[in-house]
Protein backbone atom coordinates (compact mmCIF):
# COMPACT_ATOMS: atom_id res chain seq x y z
CA UNK A 1 0.00 0.00 0.00
CA UNK A 2 1.13 3.53 -0.74
CA UNK A 3 1.15 6.50 1.64
CA UNK A 4 -2.03 7.73 -0.09
CA UNK A 5 -3.67 4.33 0.45
CA UNK A 6 -2.78 4.45 4.15
CA UNK A 7 -4.19 7.97 4.41
CA UNK A 8 -7.43 6.87 2.71
CA UNK A 9 -7.87 3.93 5.08
CA UNK A 10 -7.15 6.13 8.10
CA UNK A 11 -9.66 8.73 6.85
CA UNK A 12 -12.24 5.99 6.28
CA UNK A 13 -11.76 4.63 9.80
CA UNK A 14 -11.92 8.11 11.39
CA UNK A 15 -14.93 9.46 9.50
CA UNK A 16 -17.27 6.48 9.05
CA UNK A 17 -20.48 6.93 11.04
CA UNK A 18 -23.53 4.67 11.29
CA UNK A 19 -26.58 6.87 11.81
CA UNK A 20 -29.55 5.85 13.99
CA UNK A 21 -31.65 4.73 11.01
CA UNK A 22 -28.81 2.47 9.83
CA UNK A 23 -27.40 4.65 7.07
CA UNK A 24 -23.61 4.59 6.79
CA UNK A 25 -21.95 7.94 6.09
CA UNK A 26 -18.34 8.15 4.91
CA UNK A 27 -16.37 11.30 4.07
CA UNK A 28 -14.93 11.43 0.56
CA UNK A 29 -11.13 11.13 0.41
CA UNK A 30 -10.58 14.50 -1.26
CA UNK A 31 -7.18 15.74 -2.39
CA UNK A 32 -5.82 19.13 -1.25
CA UNK A 33 -6.85 20.77 -4.54
CA UNK A 34 -10.60 20.28 -4.43
CA UNK A 35 -11.50 22.94 -6.97
CA UNK A 36 -14.25 21.94 -9.38
CA UNK A 37 -15.68 24.07 -12.14
CA UNK A 38 -19.34 24.34 -13.04
CA UNK A 39 -20.99 21.07 -14.02
CA UNK A 40 -24.61 22.19 -14.22
CA UNK A 41 -24.57 22.73 -18.01
CA UNK A 42 -23.33 19.21 -18.72
CA UNK A 43 -25.78 17.71 -16.22
CA UNK A 44 -28.68 19.54 -17.89
CA UNK A 45 -27.61 18.37 -21.37
CA UNK A 46 -27.46 14.79 -20.11
CA UNK A 47 -30.86 15.15 -18.41
CA UNK A 48 -32.48 16.46 -21.59
CA UNK A 49 -30.99 13.53 -23.50
CA UNK A 50 -32.38 11.07 -20.95
CA UNK A 51 -35.82 12.72 -21.05
CA UNK A 52 -35.88 12.43 -24.86
CA UNK A 53 -34.99 8.73 -24.61
CA UNK A 54 -37.65 8.18 -21.92
CA UNK A 55 -40.41 9.86 -23.97
CA UNK A 56 -39.83 7.29 -26.73
CA UNK A 57 -40.24 4.35 -24.32
CA UNK A 58 -43.08 4.61 -21.73
CA UNK A 59 -42.00 1.42 -19.90
CA UNK A 60 -38.47 2.72 -19.48
CA UNK A 61 -39.87 6.09 -18.37
CA UNK A 62 -41.95 4.42 -15.65
CA UNK A 63 -39.04 2.25 -14.43
CA UNK A 64 -36.66 5.21 -14.43
CA UNK A 65 -39.07 7.40 -12.45
CA UNK A 66 -39.65 4.57 -9.94
CA UNK A 67 -35.90 4.16 -9.43
CA UNK A 68 -35.35 7.89 -8.92
CA UNK A 69 -38.20 8.17 -6.39
CA UNK A 70 -36.82 5.19 -4.47
CA UNK A 71 -33.32 6.69 -4.54
CA UNK A 72 -34.68 9.94 -3.11
CA UNK A 73 -36.64 8.09 -0.40
CA UNK A 74 -33.53 6.11 0.62
CA UNK A 75 -31.63 9.38 1.12
CA UNK A 76 -28.63 9.53 -1.24
CA UNK A 77 -30.44 12.08 -3.41
CA UNK A 78 -32.41 15.19 -2.50
CA UNK A 79 -34.24 17.91 -4.39
CA UNK A 80 -32.60 21.31 -4.44
CA UNK A 81 -33.95 24.66 -5.51
CA UNK A 82 -32.74 26.31 -8.71
CA UNK A 83 -31.16 29.05 -6.58
CA UNK A 84 -28.57 26.72 -5.01
CA UNK A 85 -25.10 27.55 -6.34
CA UNK A 86 -21.64 26.15 -5.68
CA UNK A 87 -22.64 22.49 -5.73
CA UNK A 88 -21.36 19.87 -8.14
CA UNK A 89 -24.14 18.45 -10.31
CA UNK A 90 -23.45 14.78 -10.97
CA UNK A 91 -24.51 13.79 -14.50
CA UNK A 92 -26.17 10.41 -14.90
CA UNK A 93 -27.72 8.12 -17.48
CA UNK A 94 -29.78 4.95 -17.52
CA UNK A 95 -28.67 1.46 -18.47
CA UNK A 96 -31.34 -1.02 -19.51
CA UNK A 97 -30.81 -4.74 -19.00
CA UNK A 98 -33.75 -6.45 -20.70
CA UNK A 99 -32.79 -9.94 -19.53
CA UNK A 100 -32.48 -9.00 -15.86
CA UNK A 101 -34.97 -10.55 -13.46
CA UNK A 102 -34.42 -8.08 -10.60
CA UNK A 103 -33.47 -4.65 -11.95
CA UNK A 104 -34.20 -3.85 -15.60
CA UNK A 105 -33.21 -0.18 -15.29
CA UNK A 106 -30.09 0.96 -13.50
CA UNK A 107 -29.00 4.57 -13.16
CA UNK A 108 -25.27 5.17 -13.56
CA UNK A 109 -23.74 8.31 -12.06
CA UNK A 110 -20.79 9.71 -14.01
CA UNK A 111 -18.19 11.03 -11.56
CA UNK A 112 -15.68 11.12 -14.45
CA UNK A 113 -17.60 13.89 -16.25
CA UNK A 114 -15.39 16.97 -16.55
CA UNK A 115 -16.53 20.32 -15.16
CA UNK A 116 -15.73 23.68 -16.79
CA UNK A 117 -12.21 23.74 -15.29
CA UNK A 118 -11.42 20.33 -16.83
CA UNK A 119 -11.63 18.41 -13.53
CA UNK A 120 -14.12 15.76 -12.51
CA UNK A 121 -15.18 14.55 -9.08
CA UNK A 122 -12.97 11.49 -9.63
CA UNK A 123 -9.99 13.76 -10.40
CA UNK A 124 -10.10 15.48 -7.00
CA UNK A 125 -10.43 12.27 -4.97
CA UNK A 126 -7.87 9.67 -3.95
CA UNK A 127 -8.72 6.21 -5.22
CA UNK A 128 -7.70 4.40 -2.05
CA UNK A 129 -6.23 0.91 -1.83
CA UNK A 130 -7.31 -1.99 -3.99
CA UNK A 131 -9.57 -4.02 -1.69
CA UNK A 132 -10.48 -6.88 -4.02
CA UNK A 133 -8.39 -9.49 -5.74
CA UNK A 134 -8.14 -9.59 -9.53
CA UNK A 135 -11.08 -11.29 -11.23
CA UNK A 136 -8.66 -13.70 -12.93
CA UNK A 137 -7.43 -14.95 -9.54
CA UNK A 138 -11.00 -15.33 -8.26
CA UNK A 139 -12.15 -17.25 -11.34
CA UNK A 140 -9.09 -19.48 -11.21
CA UNK A 141 -9.80 -20.32 -7.57
CA UNK A 142 -13.46 -21.06 -8.38
CA UNK A 143 -12.35 -23.86 -10.68
CA UNK A 144 -11.01 -25.68 -7.60
CA UNK A 145 -14.48 -26.00 -6.01
CA UNK A 146 -17.42 -28.25 -6.90
CA UNK A 147 -20.01 -25.47 -6.57
CA UNK A 148 -20.02 -21.74 -7.16
CA UNK A 149 -22.68 -19.38 -5.81
CA UNK A 150 -23.32 -15.80 -6.87
CA UNK A 151 -25.69 -13.20 -5.47
CA UNK A 152 -26.86 -9.67 -6.21
CA UNK A 153 -27.00 -7.37 -3.18
CA UNK A 154 -29.39 -4.49 -3.77
CA UNK A 155 -29.73 -1.25 -1.75
CA UNK A 156 -29.44 -2.83 1.69
CA UNK A 157 -29.18 -0.82 4.91
CA UNK A 158 -27.60 -1.74 8.24
CA UNK A 159 -30.12 -1.95 11.07
What does this protein structure show overall?
- InterPro entries: DNA/RNA_pol_sf.
- Helix content is 35%, strand content 9%.
- The relative contact order is 0.19.
- The chain contains four helices and four strands; from the N terminus they run H-E-E-H-H-E-E-H.
- It has helices at residues 3-15, 40-56, 58-74, 135-142, and strands spanning 17-18, 24-25, 92-96, 105-109.
- The mean pLDDT is 85.
- Helix 2 packs across helix 3.
- The protein has 159 residues and is an alpha+beta fold.
- It has a two-stranded antiparallel sheet with strand order 1-2.
What are the SSEs and their pairings?
Blueprint: H1 3-15, E1 17-18, E2 24-25, H2 40-56, H3 58-74, E3 92-96, E4 105-109, H4 135-142
Antiparallel strand pairs: 1-2, 3-4
Helix pairs in contact: 2-3
Query: Cα-atom Rg, whole angstroms?
Result: 19 Å
Going by helix content, strand content and strand pairing, the class is: alpha+beta
Helix content: 25-40%
Low-confidence stretches: none
Lateral strand order in the biggest sheet: 1-2
What is the tally of beta strands? 4
Q: What's the tally of helices?
A: 4
- SSE pattern, N- to C-terminal: HEEHHEEH
Terminal CA distance reads 32 Å
The description of the largest β-sheet is: 2 strands, antiparallel
Mean pLDDT: 85
Shape from CA axes? globular
What percentage of amino acids are in beta strands?
A: 5-15%
Q: What would you say about this model in short?
A:
By secondary structure, this protein is α+β, with helices and mostly antiparallel strands. Helix content is 35%, strand content 9%. The protein has helices spanning 3-15, 40-56, 58-74, 135-142, and strands at residues 17-18, 24-25, 92-96, 105-109.
Amino acid sequence: MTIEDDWCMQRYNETTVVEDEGRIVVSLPLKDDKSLGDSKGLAIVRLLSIEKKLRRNPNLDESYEKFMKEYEELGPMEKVSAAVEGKYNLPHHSVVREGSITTKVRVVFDASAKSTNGKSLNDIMYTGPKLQRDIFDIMLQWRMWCYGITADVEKCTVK
